[in-house]
Design a protein that fits this description.
Beta-Lactamase, four-stranded antiparallel sheet, six-stranded antiparallel sheet
Length: about 250
């Protein structure tokens, strides 16, 4: 049996390993989004910016988006392809000459070929989908370089408990929209749980609002809310500069 100091050090080391694993998992998605962002900039500045972009210009994104989805044409045998369930570019209102509102969004499909998400983007319609109100769009619009929203039940797309990760797309210094990806919570948790299980005692990942994303204990299931009451029962470990933290039992 180790000394109290050695046990505490082991717990600290396991927590550091778990933090690194969480960061690696999230960063793999953000790396895919940076690729989408760069490709989107090329699409929305056609002919060197001599004209306004149109919907047809965004079709060039599709091979890249499909390749980042599990089972999609050109899908890569990488961890990110097993995480992402939906991915795309969401245009800033008024960006496109022929569609004031538009999203080039694709989702995985059991058939093996991605399907495009189609929403009512007519502002005069009662079913109008105003995506600017969602945090995954508002965060990048307000200047956040990396936004993580959720977990939440995605009733609009998959009915799955999900996270949405997003980054801003700037073209010529002007906000052009958002590159975003949906990740099922069960997949994200599956990717980080082995590292969480190595942490002695309860350990769970929370978002900026304190909502649990992944956990090694049934006492703190995904979706529950952690509030630090200053009791000293838990220690909080930031996950780099991401809006995530690992919470572990204090020792």
């Amino acid at each position: 049996m180790g000394t109290p100091a050695s046990v505490a050090q082991a717990g600290h080391d396991h927590a550091a390993t778990a933090v690194a694993r969480v960061r690696e998992t999230a960063e793999s998605v953000f790396e895919a989004l940076r690729e989408v962002r760069d490709a989107a900039v090329a699409c929305v500045r056609p002919a060197g910016g001599a004209r306004r972009p149109v919907v047809a210009d965004l079709a060039a994104l599709r091979p890249l988006l499909w390749a980042r989805l599990r089972g999609g044409p050109g899908a890569l045998p990488s961890p990110v392809a097993t995480l992402i369930a939906g991915i795309g570019f969401i245009a800033a209102p008024g960006l496109l000459a022929d569609a004031p509102w538009y999203l080039e969004w694709w989702q995985e499909n059991p058939s093996g070929h991605p399907v495009q998400l189609l929403r009512d983007l007519n502002p005069a319609s009662s079913a109008f989908y105003d995506y600017t109100h969602w945090d995954w769009f508002a965060g990048p619009y307000s200047g956040a370089e990396r936004t993580i929203c959720g977990p939440y039940v995605d009733y609009l797309c998959t009915d799955e408990y999900s996270l949405t990760l997003s980054v801003p797309v700037l073209a010529g210094g002007t906000f052009a929209g958002v590159a975003a990806a949906d990740v099922f919570v069960r997949r994200f948790e599956g990717a980080v749980l082995p590292a969480l299980r190595e942490v002695p005692g309860p350990a769970f990942l929370v978002n900026a609002e304190g909502r649990v994303v992944a956990s090694n204990t049934a006492s703190w299931i995904a979706g529950s809310v952690y509030r630090d009451g200053g009791s000293g029962d838990f220690s909080v470990h930031p996950v780099g500069d991401l809006p995530l933290s690992l919470v572990t039992a204090a020792r």
